[in-house]
Amino acid sequence: MSVLLQDLYNETKNLYGLKLIAGASGMGNAVNWVYIAESLAGPGYLNGGELILTTGVLCREDPNWLYSFIEGMIREKTCGLILNTGKYIQPEHITQEILSLCNTVGFPLFTMPWETAISAITHDYYGRLFTDSQRREQLDRTLLDLIHQRQDSTMLLSELEEYGYPVYQPYGLLYIHLANPAVGLPVSPLAQANRLCLSIEHKLRSLSLQSHLCYTDSYCIVLIPQQELHRMESAAHSIRDFISSQYPSLQFTIGISSRAATLANLPRAFFHARSSAMIALARGKDLLSFDDLGIFQILLSVTDKGILRDYARRHLHAAEAYDRENQSNCTEVLHQYLLHSGSIQHIAEVMYCHRNTINKKVRILRENLGYDLSDSNIRFELMLAFCIRDYLKISL
């Protein structure tokens, strides 16, 4: 859905006398906006994805200014730079070092003759980007309204079909939870989410993955259509690795949804993807698929959490009450007993206790509290109660 630099260049290069001189490998970059700049204003003043135009007026004062300026634009993750040449920027200013830098990192560098009016090209590009932005925002709004069930789904599904998303096809979702989107940065959470999502979009294009990404200040979702579903999990791992390398201080988790049979099933897939991300966060993981949730898949389908609370309380109450009255840890011993198939040695190692201590507490569980740990049905029910207890601790 984004305007790509390659398309913008091909459609307007003759009109404005543009010439690509370096960084051709970055022509798949999306253009977020057009910005005229003559100096570096410091980190964080750009959101990333801007196409920069400059007259290079400062080249008069420092012939080496241009190299530093381009380095700064690369750091700010802009998508390319147009040099308005012929007055301040001369051929000798565009050194081999500059061309090598742009080619190495894939930063598109263009020249445009001084005779081309900057006002003409910016007005043209603003119009193109504004039209694309309106279309994209409407698609994002429709998609978010559908997954959050804010409006009548019939109208929303019709709108999405007009945007090229057939109703009666399967889809998948990736949910990217942003725990601290603006940590350590002089920008708002939404601005940082915007910068991050532009980077993720670029990664998705590098993977040649047909998809649509939209975001809020706390999460991103990637809608994946039928023809790409077989790549959904590998794409999630690629995005996970990319975010980790590009934003090492960012805390995030990725949830992979169940398969939505049709577009109308997206709210359920969104819930599964989001729940997978939240469960991953609780488990200290950065990625988790709904298919790998085990018993939590079933628990997520229970809408009345009161039933779950009552079930866990009924099965664990005796041990928990004993612990409160005696400042003991019999509940945890019971949990470990179930996890380690009754191996006293393993329980003692995990809990850093002597075997005799564990044996004593197991006797309390059996004799004082009435837990028949020889009965497989009771062990199953107790294990389920512990799973429910862990599940209810997670904010979904």
Architecture overview:
The chain is an alpha/beta fold. Helices cover 51% and strands 12% of the residues. The protein has 14 helices and ten strands. Helix 4 runs antiparallel to helix 5, helix 6 crosses helix 7 (232-246) and helix 11 (330-339) packs across helix 13. The longest helix has 30 residues, at 118-147.
Short description:
By secondary structure, the protein is an alpha/beta fold. Helices cover 51% and strands 12% of the residues.
Give the helix/strand layout.
Layout: H1 5-16, E1 19-22, E2 33-36, E3 50-54, H2 65-75, E4 80-85, H3 96-105, E5 109-113, H4 118-147, H5 153-162, E6 172-178, H6 189-206, E7 212-215, E8 219-224, H7 232-246, E9 252-256, H8 266-282, E10 287-289, H9 295-300, H10 305-326, H11 330-339, H12 344-351, H13 355-368, H14 376-392
Parallel strand pairs: 2-3, 3-4, 4-5, 9-10
Antiparallel strand pairs: 1-5, 6-8, 6-9, 7-8
Helix pairs in contact: 2-3, 4-5, 6-7, 10-14, 11-13, 12-13
| DSSP strand tally | 10
Portion in beta strands: 5-15%
Structural class call reads: alpha/beta
Poorly predicted segments:
182-186
- End-to-end separation: 31 Å
Cα Rg: 28 Å
Silhouette: elongated
H-E string? HEEEHEHEHHEHEEHEHEHHHHHH
Helical content, roughly?
40-55%
SS summary, helix count: 14
